[in-house]
Amino acid sequence: MLSLMPEARVLPNEITYSAAVSACQKGGQWQLALGLLNSMPGMSLIPNEVSYNSAISACGKGGQWQLALILLSQMPDRRLVPNEISYNAAISACEKVGQWQGALVLLGRMPEARASPDEISFSASISACAPARQWRLALEVWRKMVGLQVEPDEVSYNALITVCERSEQLDRGVQFLWESKERGVSLSAAFFPWALARLSVPDPDVISAAFDEVAMKLSSSQLAPQELSIIVWAFGMLGVNNPTLFHALINQAVPQLESFTMGDLLKLAWGSAASGVDLELFMTIQNEVIARLEHVDLQSFSEMSKTAFLQDTLGLLWASNFAGCCSNNLLTSARLVIRQAGAIMDRAHGPSSSTAFRSMGDLPCTEADQWQPANKPQTILDLPDRLVVFKPPGWEVYDQNTELQLSSFLQATLGKRFAILHDEEHQCGFLHRLDLPSSGLILAAKTYEAYYDLKVQLNAGEIARDYVILCHGWMRPCVKDIKAKVYWRGPSPTSAGDQGKPSLTRLKVVAHARHGATALSLVAVRIATGRRHQIRSHFAHVGHPTVCDGKYTAEATCQADQDICARNFLHRYRLAFKDLAGKSHEVMMPVPADLTISLQRVASRDFQSSETVHDWLSGNSLRSWQDYTPLMSNFGGKTSRHCLCRWWCWLLVAVVLVILIVGVTVSSLL
Fold this sequence. Notes:
CATH architecture of the domain at 463-632: 2-Layer Sandwich
Pfam families: PPR, PPR_2, PPR_3, PseudoU_synth_2
Shape: globular
Organism: Polarella glacialis (Dinoflagellate)
Radius of gyration: 29 Å
Domain Pseudouridine synthase RsuA/RluA-like: 387-541
Transmembrane segments: 647-669
GO molecular function: pseudouridine synthase activity; RNA binding
């Protein structure tokens, strides 16, 4: 419309340009906003405070915090006085990328610039401290806010509780939660459920009271899409069991789905998957997402907005798959758009990411010697745009917490041809991780298109990840899965139980053994979800922690386990996935030498267990998790006979009870 004004013989002025810059700001189009701002002098127009404030906000939404600060610093040179809105926009730009130092410096400068900090200034500064877990600095900002008699609002408490949660200061977070209520702050219906879920408050009475308030508000008013999505998310995180309230939430949400952002739709789907699947809701959500995917223009997104859109789409795929109702139409639409986004990124990074892999297109796949891996990483399968690497114990996939980095190995092996291998925002090309003490196969991408193609497969449940573990106790062979939710914060161990992210570990007990007086089980595992320390926390949760696990067993137990195994007995032995053309690939890796020695030290409990352990030692009978036979299904052994005897006992009791009931009934009739 701005470009059409001259044709209509209407001259643009400062107001029209400022309005156009503001429109770009709302859409996150920081490049356009800066272009318009810089073009104003050429039109004999002088940018005003509104023009600059909108441009600063646009840079903030696009993650360009440095440009936002440059614009703020330019205002005095243009004889413009930065006001509260200018500073708040710049502080918010720092907040969005976790630049807490910049945010706090700007907050400190406001009084000398005769700009009075308000609740927006303080809230954004507190929020900027969250990613770096600077809770002490956040509390200082909070005290300054209260000292200046600036009234905190819901956003302020939201920011403060987030900092406390990220910094593992949960008790402080709960104190601020109750304080928000005592102060009489105007709170949305979603605030308390959100805070309880973020802080993992376990008190069932507190949780019940919070959702009772939600029910009251729900019965008297129409909640906004963002509120509804957050409440449903909290419903799933807290493990609330209230079908009546859940369906009331869904009944309000469904008619408004077109007004939900992709992030809101993700929370809605995620909460539903964690709480109890509503098939009608999932199909409605999927149809809405498919419609958006068909009309999406990725080129119109800012980098931050595009990243958020892709992550939300992948999350919706995951939630749909976890719920067991991911439609082919959703999968096809998502795969097309997400792979297209990867291809665009490859072109943007130049020949190192696109033509390099195309020039390798005719090369055959190479396979390394997977039977005798050293204690160093090794490439097991090398495809033109993706590869499988063996991670030895003691190596980290990436994160720079230890000296031995799998990312460094790939960078040294493949050089600088593939940009994604040096891109930490894309996990250096790795699709998943393995815990530091564990060993096994890791899948990595060489291009962005391959990375996002594999991400789709991972979230849609098309990649199989199979493990073998040795755990404590004789695990009952009739146990088929572990469904406990999990949550974690920072370096603390993952907690498994009734609250947190939904998680599913499938298992087959394939052998029972002992080492001295220690009972052991060899278990084949397939994970349906890939949570942090999922297998280790799940098995500890059911009373069968993995052998030599310093995080999930007592120190004395871990020390005693050193006689069996020098490190955590967990090995990812199999990966199955597809290439860009849809061809299936399967890679298997026998247990490494150190775990082989550990298995040789144990004594099998029965004949079937002995045969199974021998197969794992030889490495000749590796197969998909689903093809393994649980211990009780074959020869059985003592444990199987025990389970069968117990089953027959219960059956006998049931028959006796039926006979007694029939006898009493007949006697009363006679």
